[in-house]
Design a protein that fits this description.
The complex is a heterodimer of chains A (283) and B (523). Chain A is mainly alpha-helical and 283 residues long. Chain A is flat, with a radius of gyration of 26 Å. Chain A starts with 5 loop residues before the first helix and ends with a helix. The relative contact order of chain B is 0.09. Chain B folds into two domains: 221 residues, P-loop containing nucleotide triphosphate hydrolases (Rossmann fold, 3-Layer(aba) Sandwich), CATH 3.40.50; 225 residues, P-loop containing nucleotide triphosphate hydrolases (Rossmann fold, 3-Layer(aba) Sandwich), CATH 3.40.50.300. Chain B has 19 helices and 19 strands. In chain B, strand 1 and strand 2 form a beta hairpin. The chains are: A mainly alpha (283), B alpha/beta (523). Chains A and B meet through helix 6 and helix 7 of A and helix 2, helix 3, helix 4, helix 5 and strand 15 of B.
Chain lengths: 283, 523
Amino acid sequence: MKTLHPITSLLYFTALIGFAFVFMHPVSLGISLAGALSFMSLLEKHKALRFMLTFLLPLFLFAAAANLLFSRQGVTILAYFPSGNPLTLESILFGIAQAAMLVAVIAWFRCFNAVMSSDKLVYLFGRAAPALVLLLSMSLRFVPRFTRQMQIIAAALRGIGKDVTQGNALQRAKHGLKILSITVTWALENAVETASSMRARGYGLPGRTAFSIFRWTQRDMLVLAFVLTCAAAIITGAALGGLRAIYFAEISLAWQPLTFVLFAAHTILALLPSVKEALTWKS
Amino acid sequence: MEIITMRDFSFTYSERKAPALGDINLAVQPGEFVVICGASGSGKTTLLRQLKPAMAPHGSTAGEIHYHGKLLSELDARTAAADIGFVQQCPENQIVTDSVWHELAFGLESLGEPTPVIRLRVAEMAAFFDIEPWFHQRTAKLSGGQKQLLNLASIMAMQPQLLLLDEPTSQLDPIAAAEFLATVAKLNRDLGITVVLTEHRLEEAFAHASRAIVMDSGRIFCDGKPREVGQQLRNMNHPMQLAMPTPMRLFGDCLTVSEARQRLAQLSIDPPAVEADANPPAPEKAPVLNMKDIWFRYDKYAPDVLRGMNFSAHAGEITAILGGNGAGKSTALGVMLGLHKPQRGKVIMHESRLAAVPQNPQSLFIGKTVQEDLQEITRDYAQIAQLCELESLLQSHPYDLSGGEQQRLALAKALLTHPKILLLDEPTKGLDAQFKQQLAKILDNLTQQGTSIVLVSHDIEFCAQHAHTCALMFDGQVITQAPARQFFAGNSFYTTAANRIATWAITCEDVLLFLQKKVTKKT
């Protein structure tokens, strides 16, 4: 997935994140979750497991529990809270579904982040306005440098006994402002040199082109066609009610033959990166 | 035909009266490798910038500059951008974009080249400069040497015929600097690119150059093959000799250590007997700072940077810590300063007042004028300002000072806190020979007043000349610590050029003095 063209990747993620967000059918949610988690483990190896256990799992439990406290709908009453509110089966299931949706979306976004480097994002933005590419690229370089320089200055001052993190609020604010102001001066000074370096390399000549290292390959074509076909089929099927999932007041889920076809399509799509990787490295 | 001709050229900065350049007559043939040297302020950078229209400073000019026989000022912008490449001093500030591949493509995008052409040229550059391993990196992640190499590569991608470099290695450590200059030499030798380079670290530059030009107060006063220039300077006994490589200072027309060794052997003079008393063991001075078995890493999962480091500094001495990149020198300073807390071991301070000057002196400045910056510490700055020779600069903005002046201001700021121990990180970085001498004078002054100085440096020659004690760091430990003479006499690779030429000597002055004595005895 990392080696695909940014447009292909973007489309894939849009589809999968969209599905995870919209389809509340328990099986759909399971597919979304399984796809996202397996893709994540593929991308981040053991770090993914840590993220799942320390962040996603607690989040899941918390979100599911929180929903119970606020939801009073449903017809199948299991018990009553001390406050007198009913605890219903529907609200428990809906809470679990919501939590699964939340976790799946976050996991997909994490995969998105790992795959879509800033280069690719800049390229995608740049499709809309080529001039924006350079601006974005320069800002991506500038912002971390600026904060780094502020840290360097603070450390240097500490070296001569001027600890800017000490003193009362007013003193600290004063020091902070001074450092900010000198860092701005520093940035402007450097910008003069950067500007001359740009001019020296012909910036400002008419007819500037925008280069990108991303190549549109036949593989992109295939993947894109496949993703589009599956997504279109799933969306059409869902529009026909194939993935109907109603939790309140009574649970009602779609279980038609069409539903299973849609599940299959969704599964193939969600597990595409993981399966592809498993096949590549099988022997 | 000459690639560059300057005829009776002179230049005056706007708002200045005295010309910065005068009577410049210069012809550069295609394929030459020209090194321009001279003290800071001698006009070498100003001269270099005149050759690139986009970089030329504001001011009034007289005389003519021709590029390939045509007036440079009439050259069309596209040709001027592509044909004449310019590498500036600071590796960091020249980089425009956030990723290596985009930086390589930047110039070609400006020229409006189509994607397939750019793709090919970028690939060529990445292969030639061996950039492939870090081709997909963020530019922020690169080392200084890599950054400067990237700057060079992204200019070479535009296929220039003339390459101008303005002190490109002044911010690099010696190994990265040598690598960079070797790459420039390769461009000159293998591709025939004409190179004009200003530099004040001349050891490598002279070895590669086909021609050297020495400037003083805006004029060219020596021009010839590096060896000839060395001989001329020696005959004139010019102060620029100080900046010359050691072999050249000793014998005028020698460039390498091996040549100088042969020359010394030809003189067939007996080496001076190393007298037992010549190096009396210095009376052991009171320690001011001890590091005992220090272990340090930046992060739980990061590798150890300091691995059982032992070190001591003594009262009223200059102690130099030498060592390669990544040996942990700067980290050790941070530990002494208390910026980093060691995981194991102890730092024992016998003095509480400590001050440090960081590697980049600029990061100490927060005022709008030099005066304001000094007042930041105390109103009572007159004496220190005098010591550091800052009186005439009090109203300037700290950022407008030259490298050497900035170093002095940073030193003054640190001194205003009246430290008993002064820590300096690479104090000679980017300084020319004259400024180094000035710095040494100030440091000597301080030690005489009882301040102890610990400095971290790559500058072997400076440490040999001015430090009392030297310590070699390797792999997070101090491998050896000894009085400077003893230290260098015991090393065969990590030592001064003078020591490599004459095993009984440490500094260039030792050899010069000895030769003088011999000559006077003979006559």
